[in-house]
Design goal:
The protein is of the alpha+beta class and about 475 residues long. It has nine helices and 14 strands.
């Protein structure tokens, strides 16, 4: 199913179907429970009326059972024998016994003087009806040949003679079954119709909503064919997701256009940076070929070294842009800092190192690339410092932090992100020999990110700049 409209319609239909089925089942269960409780309440009322008569010692054959056809009644004694039933009751289940023929009571079968002419016990006092909640159960009963389902309530009564009797009274569940059946039939009829309506409406709404997407697709295809990144896709006037998609697409095109422009500038700047030392070196060699006594060997060597360093920087940037993964060698960053500082004997300003001897500063990565980062940070600090350059190593929150601080003029807050761009040098008046090609900090940040860390710059209260390299600890 490749159509978004079809998938959306199917998905909406399935979701609505599941929701309606769940809601319908919940409604049916609640409705059945409520109607069953009402039937149980009706059965309890009848059972308590009969139990009240038994507590007053009314003879079994004189019991008044109202609405006998709708509420079948069965009275059992402590031994489970049936002592009284309602009229026309032919069969019963769900009350503990299915007997419907009363057993002859010993009291009723004798002419003992303990009973008067009305069949009541002449013993003094009166019995009582159990006030606890009755027991409920579902069953069936046959009254005048009609069998139906009933909700039975069981209430106990004690006569004045201490005889405990149980009254089982039933209330019909026909109303509950009819109501539940009507609701079920309505749901079975209405559910398919409602699902068809939901499916159709979703199809139409999705079709209308996705119409701008086709315009975006056509424009993107035209941009791809023409390679004109200055073009933009049409943005709908609405504020929905499609409009946000169009705006995001245009923002992406803007970023892509800027990226391509940066790439072109990078190539142009790299060509320019390479052209100068190559031209200078060629000129010196041509002069040396014509006039050997005028050959500036130190200058030629310096241009060659500068050319070699620039080529190495460009090669490293190319490898980073290609997604080259750094090595995972475990190394001590504190020892690496000491090693890099020890090699800087001829620096203009001595570097002060602060590395705790008891610290564990192991990180995982490429030793050569991390050494390049530290060297670039030290070169940058040496270039801008007035009197002091310090480097420290510390552990903090699962990271190893290398901080390089100088006492120079610092970096303006608005330029602190820009200095990490390639070929960016804030002091345009600086000569290339003093300022470099503007790749050192860009390489340092790229290497830090490739190692799962970050490189930040901040100001120092006493003046100057503080660069911090954050790298995750090994393991």
């Amino acid at each position: 199913m490749r159509s978004v409209r079809a998938r959306a319609a199917l998905g909406a239909t399935v979701v609505v179907a599941v929701a309606l089925i769940g809601a319908g089942l919940a409604v049916l269960l609640v409705l059945r429970a409520n109607l069953t409780d009402q039937a149980g309440l009706q059965a309890e009322v009848v059972a308590r009326e009969v139990a009240g008569q038994l507590a007053l010692d009314v003879r079994y054959d004189r019991l008044e059972m109202r609405a006998e056809e709708d509420n079948p009644v069965q009275v059992t004694d402590e031994d489970g024998r049936v002592v009284a039933v309602s009229k026309h009751l032919e069969a019963i289940s769900g009350t503990g016994t299915d007997q419907v023929a009363p057993a002859k009571s010993p009291a009723e079968g004798s002419d003992d003087d303990s009973h008067d002419d009305h069949g009541r016990y002449s013993a003094p006092g009166r019995g009582e009806v159990d006030s606890d909640d009755p027991d409920f159960d579902n069953g069936t009963a046959t009254v005048d040949g009609d069998t139906a389902d009933y909700r039975f309530a069981s209430v106990q009564a004690t006569t004045s003679a201490g005889v405990t009797l149980t009254v089982h009274a039933g209330a019909p569940l026909a109303a509950e079954q009819e109501a539940v059946g009507s609701v079920r039939r309505a749901m079975l009829i209405g559910l398919p119709v409602l699902l068809l309506v939901v499916s159709g409406v979703t199809w139409l709404v999705t079709r209308r909503a996705l119409r701008p997407v086709e315009g975006i697709r056509r424009e993107m295809a035209a941009i791809t064919a023409s390679e004109d990144l200055s073009r933009r896709v049409p943005e709908p006037g609405s504020r929905d997701e499609i409009a946000r998609l169009a705006r995001t697409t245009n923002e992406t095109l803007t970023a892509l256009e800027a990226s391509v422009d940066r790439q072109r500038r990078f190539v142009a700047d790299a060509s320019h940076e390479l052209r100068s030392p190559i031209a200078s070196l060629r000129t010196q060699l041509e002069v040396g070929a014509a006039h050997p006594e005028l050959l500036d060997v130190p200058g030629a060597v310096a241009d060659t070294v500068r050319l070699q360093a620039l080529a190495a920087d460009l090669l490293l940037l190319a490898r980073l842009d290609a997604g080259e993964r750094p090595g995972r060698t475990t190394l001590d960053l504190g020892a690496l800092v000491h090693e890099e500082v020890s090699q800087r004997i001829g620096d203009r300003i001595p570097v002060a190192v602060s590395v705790p001897g008891s610290g564990a500063f192991e990180v995982a990565g490429s030793r050569g690339q991390l050494a390049r980062v530290i060297g670039n940070l030290l070169d940058n600090a040496e270039r801008h410092a007035e009197h002091a350059v310090t480097v420290s190593v510390r552990g903090e929150r699962g990271s190893v932090v290398v901080a390089v601080t100088d006492d120079g003029v610092g970096v303006p807050p608005e330029e602190r992100e820009r200095i990490f761009e390639r070929f960016v040098r804030l002091d345009d008046a600086r000569t290339r020999d003093e300022g470099g090609a503007g790749l050192g900090l860009a390489i340092a940040r790229d290497v830090a990110v490739r190692h799962g860390g970050r490189l930040t710059v901040d100001g120092v209260r006493e003046g100057g700049a503080r660069f911090e390299l954050w790298l995750p600890t090994a393991g």
